[in-house]
Amino acid sequence: MPHTYVLLFSFIIIAAILSWIVPAGEFERVMVGEREIINPDSFAYVTSNPQGIFEVLKSIPRGFARTQDISYFLFVTGGSFLIINKTGMIESALSRIVSSLKGKEALVIPVVVLIMGLAGSTIGLSEETIVFIALGVSLARAIGYDSLIGVGMIGLGAGVGFTSGFMNPFSVGVAQSIAELPLFSGIELRLVLFVVLWIVTSLYLILYGKRVKADLSNSIVYDEEMAARSHSDYQDLNSADNIEFTTKQKIIAAVFVGGFVIIAYGVMSLGWFITEIGAVFLGMGLISGLIYGMRPGDLADNFIEGAKDMMYAALIVGLAQSLVIIMEDAMILDTLINGLTGAISNLPSVLSAAGMYVVQIIINFFISSGSGQAAVTMPIMIPLADALDVTRQTAVLSYQLGNGFLDSIMPMSGILMAQLAIADIPYKKWVKFAMPLMGIWLAIGLVFIIFAQLVGYGPF
Q1: For 7-44, what is each residue's pLDDT tens digit?
Q2: Which of 57, 163, 339, 383 is the 20 to 30 Å CA partner of 210?
Q3: Where are the transmembrane segments (predicted)?
Q4: What's the pTM?
Q5: Cα–Cα distance between 46 and 222 in angstroms, integer?
Q6: Do 416 and 131 touch, CB atoms closer than 8 A?
């Protein structure tokens, strides 16, 4: 497995080569309210725009420019988190949690996965998971697991929620509005899906964590864990005696918890996104450092150190977006979508529903945004579903599951690559860890798609 940067750049090169082979084409875009959607009957071939070496090179800074909000978010949260971490509050708080969970550590996994899942299903928690990765890894290590469990609880937990999406306005909500379905209709089946995915994912993490806890050498990231444990700042909270939780640290903990309460309220009630979340996190870091007694110069030094740790992740986010830019500029994205949908147009209804699921999975490699994929594909899939006697609700479910599952393993996902970079997990080791679970998820999704079509999942 090559270096992550090499892997992503290779995908960019492949997309550029395809631009010389795949005919350019496009659908007409029309505005419905404030949303741009595709006219499914408007596909036409256009003059090709193959991408050369200079276009490939330009796509990289353009990718950085398009994702600058996420990159700055990483720098701000990374710097702020290190300031908070330097106060020792997290270490002391975790030591108390570990002490209270002796013999019951496995309960942490399903609880955290449930919390992240509920957030993913209701407020579309996705990019925001980056904030929690360092905390999740610290908690996992503190109770005897490894960094994979930490990222799994946070990232896979949010993935369970975002994919099942029983009330996700950014994926299901957009898709249902395009399909002219009542908002969040069919929630009962999606709730069942959420519970099934939560149970399966929690058990998967618990079983892996049990092996790691019994013997750290069973960890897929054993080398990385040994390196982390040899770091001068690392402290084994399992073996530590009663670490003092000072008054200052308790106040900082209150600031920390209060900050996340404010973030939760802002996201759910005020429509906040990563700019506002980053601002709150910056305030949490500065206030925590001042309470602890850091001098302004120390605050600046710690912030810079934490921001530097995010450089690897920030660059990966930009590279992932460069791939999309190449395909957009080459005008081959619509051609690929048109070809994929045409391939399933003559199948029986049950197989057509399954085919829609497969097509959405493939398209997700090129369009990782939930609402973006809905806007591009649903105007095509809904008339196709009507023609193939597939219910519109089943078509939405096919999109929803095809869009969500592989986000947790695709190297084109900037969010995933940022999570792994923060946790210092090589991509190839994450694939080894997560691939079996992805297979289970995909199989569960196929079962639900077939069931939905057989029972006439509706209202229509």
Answers
A1: 778 888 998 999 999 999 988 877 766 556 667 778 89
A2: 163
A3: 6-25, 70-87, 107-135, 147-167, 187-207, 251-274, 280-297, 309-327, 347-367, 437-457
A4: 0.74
A5: 52
A6: no
